[in-house]
Amino acid sequence: MMVTYIVFAILMILALAYMLRPLFRSKAQPFPESPGPEELRLELDLLKAQAKEAEGEERKRILVQAVRIERQLAELSNEKPSPGRLSPVTLGVVTLGLVALGVGLWTYTVPRLPGESIISMRNEAQELAGLLRQAEQTGTTASWLAYANKAYDLQDFERAVQGYLQVLELEPHNANAVRRIGILLFMSGRPEEGLQALELAVRAEPAVAEGWLFLGNAYFQLGQPAQAVTAWEGYLKAGGSAREQVQNLIQTARDQQTATSRGQQVYLGKCAACHGAQAQGGSGPRLRGNPINQVPEAVREIVEKGRGSMPPQQLTPEEMNALLKYLSSL
Fold this sequence. Notes:
Layout: H1 2-20, H2 37-53, H3 56-78, H4 88-108, H5 119-138, H6 141-153, H7 157-170, H8 175-187, H9 191-204, H10 209-221, H11 225-237, H12 243-257, H13 262-270, H14 272-275, H15 296-305, H16 317-328
Helix pairs in contact: 1-4, 2-3, 5-6, 6-7, 7-8, 8-9, 8-10, 9-10, 10-11, 11-12, 12-13, 13-16
């Protein structure tokens, strides 16, 4: 979309410059205009005729004047023609074209609704706005749940939370709303609160794989790998589609349980999800054999401040020292 905006801006600037070009032509001076080529040629022919009859100094003066005119003619022949003024019709056509282009781009590209970023998303955002109006008018659990689920699908999490809270006001034990509130709490960095909601949700609807997945994530983030494995196995039993990824998570949690050092435990709990249980790399770069492991201050800065898509990690001094020692051994 940014490319569309840039192209539109360039077209607008070029068209505006083209329309305003006649306004920047030099204004007429308060002196007579210089003679044109035809007038100069006539004057040159007259001077040549006079030179044939003249003698002495008078002949020289006439010839000098003739040479000056010939130079003027040569300069005029090398000049580019000045642009003519635009007609009102041309100006009107260009203006209408720009207006039509602007309206088209505004209609089909400029985001104006929650969650809207491209044309397809615009239609979904309009649907979301309609669901909100319906929920406000009817006030039913079903209408608020439809609105909240749509906002969640659009990753408009703020409105999703508002919708699920409305559902819980009307129906406090609605498992869908409880589960999604737990997921959103976990995603917002509040795993303890999210864990409580997710435990309630999986007990109410054990066949929904989504609840087991995030319950395992919450357990793992809170340093409870055994409970995380049990939850992720519940995800697989419920028929979750991300089987390979969850099986890798289960293996990582089991490796953490059998870790031989505190540094390995910290690594498996904080780093393995992105860099791999064996530091072989994944969504994050390979750490096994990486030269940066031998520069502990650089590693410390990356872990504490984050880099790129990697968020900063909150570690105690003891955990940080153990992690640095473990990474330097890889």
